[in-house]
Write a structure and sequence with these properties.
three-stranded antiparallel sheet, RecF-like, ATP hydrolysis activity, Putative ATPase, Bact_Antivir_Def_Nuclease, ATP binding
């Protein structure tokens, strides 16, 4: 999926993202608290609605391209039922039994109206459908229809990394051996919805050359590492609990150290770097990758390598990234920057072209950090 434009309103909080366009690579920059992370979460909210969630008081407009080249425009609006536990705290409240209804919704494919929803019902290709749930999006309800199915598949390609997930969690799966037979080619591994650690195991077992490419990219960042593997832990029969003996673990071999180091003993920066590299290599073609505060948990050597990997990414990948780190900002073309500011609850992301930045990266960065709207973030 490649997002072209997005706008979003949360009526329960008064927060509004004004129409924002995205490029193949978009770096959101600005002061803390202006709404950079919230922009990423707005995209995730739209994905949730596409998957059947009912989000109180929001309205959205999104235009995106599919892998097949179709342009979808999808807009809609939920009623505002007032205070919502989910909107405020981010989790469901079982006591909130009455979900908000959708008051309006439209879907265009290549500018042709396909879904038109209003108080009278849902019209699909000009014909009224049978009575369907008023609390779930038509994109979800009609997901088996060929025209809508394509859009549904695209939302599966939205990947979010906010650097807060537990990267040390075990990728345990009691069907892992059966899945090894199912996911044998690069394409089937990439197109699966499996955990990235399991994907890494599948490619380690079934596509050695491709795994070596990932391992070498990691070793380039950490030259004191001489090997990477994904295998069950070695044991002498009694040192490893029985339930762990078939579980694949990421392990690295450092120069001068005899024992392999399991993922649970790796530094968070090393493991996160490997996960970033693996995610970039093993995600589906035309994936949309959202990364919040890209520099978190990464050393400067990791930032260097991964920033260059993202800038040169292929396979139709789209990146929307937030960062405060000078190295990242300075090494991404200023034409890919969006300077985020807000006035009250209204968030605006401006193009770098609005500020006449110098063509030199260093001078452009210096101009950026000296802008009042960059350092303060709030417009009067």
């Amino acid at each position: 999926m490649r997002i072209k434009t997005l706008s979003y309103i949360d009526k329960t909080t008064g927060w509004e993202l004004q129409r924002l366009s995205f490029d193949q690579l978009t770096l959101l920059v600005g002061a803390s608290g202006v709404g950079k992370t919230r922009i990423l979460k707005s995209i995730l909210d739209v994905r949730r609605v596409a998957k059947g969630a009912s989000l109180n008081g929001i309205s959205w407009y999104i235009e995106f391209l599919t892998t097949g080249g179709r342009k979808y425009t999808w807009e809609g609006e939920f009623e505002d039922k007032g205070f919502s536990v989910e909107n405020t705290f981010g989790f469901n409240d079982e006591d909130e039994k009455e979900k908000p209804r959708i008051d309006s919704e439209r879907v265009y494919i290549n500018d042709e109206l396909v879904i038109d929803r209003n108080i009278d019902g849902i019209f699909f290709n000009g014909k009224k459908t049978v009575k369907l749930s008023k609390n779930e999006s038509a994109v979800f309800l009609l997901r088996e229809e060929e025209q809508i199915q394509e859009a549904q598949r695209e939302f599966d390609k939205v990947i979010f990394d906010d650097n807060t997930s537990d990267i040390n969690r075990f990728a345990f799966d009691d069907e892992v051996e059966e899945k090894l037979e199912k996911y044998r080619s690069i394409k089937t591994i990439r197109d699966s919805n499996e955990d990235v650690k399991l994907k890494l195991y599948f490619i380690y077992k079934n596509q050695k050359k491709s795994f070596e490419d990932i391992a070498q990219a990691f070793i380039d960042v950490f030259p004191y590492v001489e090997g990477v593997k994904v295998e069950p832990l070695q044991h002498n029969g009694k040192h490893v609990p029985l339930f762990l003996r078939e579980m694949p673990f990421i392990q690295i071999k450092e120069k001068g150290i005899e024992q392999w180091i399991p993922e649970t003993r790796m530094s968070s920066g090393m493991l996160r770097t490997l996960m970033h590299i693996a995610e970039l290599y093993l995600c589906a073609d035309s994936s949309l990758i959202l990364i919040d505060e890209f520099e978190n948990s990464l050393g400067i050597n990791c930032i260097d390598e991964l920033a260059q990997t993202i800038v040169s990414a292929e396979r139709g990948l789209q990146f929307i990234i937030t960062s405060h780190h000078p190295y990242i900002i300075n090494n991404i073309k200023h034409t890919d920057w969006k300077i985020v500011t807000r006035k009250g609850g209204a968030v605006v992301a401006r193009n770098a072209s609005d500020f006449n930045f110098d063509k030199s990266k260093h001078k452009a960065f210096t101009q950026l950090i000296n802008l009042d709207i960059y350092s303060e973030g709030v417009e009067s």
